[in-house]
C-alpha cells in the first residue's frame, strides 16, 4: 500500500534517506509489480529533490500526480553504468546493469508486509526509476545506538518481523546475503512494530533455500556467516597468511541469512556486536571460530530462553543452524523469558529531537555506509 508523507525514506544498496511521520494513503495504484511502458515516469510522478546519493544511484522524493501519495524513487543511470572487465577482481561493489536488473527481478517477486515493496518501475531517458515504499521511520540501528538495547518484548517484536520476512524470502528461493540493522527500517519513526527488510543489492535467486548455489563472498563483515567467509580460497589463504594460486569457491545456501539474524538479535538484546575487532582479518577469524560471549553487564537480566535462541542461530555449521521456521517456533518467540510478555505493548521508542539537523546527520552517515564485496 502506498503512503503519504512530507519526506520519504528508502535504503538502497548504497544510500538511505529519512524521516518524517507517514500516514496511510488510499491504494489506487494496484498491487502488481510491473514495468510501466504506457507512460514516462514524470507523467505519473512529480519528482522532488534528491534525498540521498550513492555510487550509481540517487533517491528522490516522488509524488504521484493523481493520488498525491509520496514514494521513494531510486534513480539509476541505466545506460552508462560500466561493466567490470572480464576476469577482473575488485574489492568494491560494482553496481552494474546486470546487478540492478537482478535486484529488480528479486524484489518484484516479493510481496510481504515485512519487506519493502516495489510498486512499479520505469525506464526513461537512459535511467531506471524504481518506485518504492516510503519508510519514514529511519534505521533500526539508530534506535539501538541512541536508546541502547531493546527490552526482550521489543526485541521479540522486531525479530518476529525479521523472521517472517526471511521465511517468505526463503520460501521463494531468495537469499538476501546482507541482513543487518542498517537494512531494517521502520515505516513510522519510533514504531518498532513497523519494521521492513530493505536493500536487495546482494540478493540472489536459487531454485530452493537449501540449494548450495551461492559462491560470492559478499555482505557486511560483522554480519557475515562463517561459510560465506570460508567460501573463497583466496580469503582463507589471506587469513592463514599463505598465498593462493587461484581462487576457488565452496558454495553456501540460505542458512547464511539466519546467522545474520542471530547477529541482529544479539545486538538488539545487548547493544553490542557479537564479533568485534579493529583488525579485519582478526574479525573474520573470530567469525570462522564462532567465538562470542553472552556474559558481562550487557547480558545481565537477559533470559536463558533469549540466549538459547541466539546460540542456536550463531552456529558455525550451517546444517545445524536453525531455519527461519524453527526460529519462529522457538520458546522465546512464543513469549517465554524473564523479561518476556505479550507482543503489542511498549513497542515504541522515544522520537529523537533535532528536526532537520538530525535528518541531515542521519542521511550523511547512512549514505557513507557500504556493504563489502570481498571477491568478485
TrEMBL record:
UniProt keyword annotation of Hydrolase present: no
Residues holding ATP: 74
Pfam families: Pkinase (PF00069)
Protein kinase domain sequence ranges: 45-333
Source superkingdom: Eukaryota
PANTHER family, per database record: SERINE/THREONINE-PROTEIN KINASE
This protein's name: Protein kinase domain-containing protein
Species of provenance: Chlorella ohadii
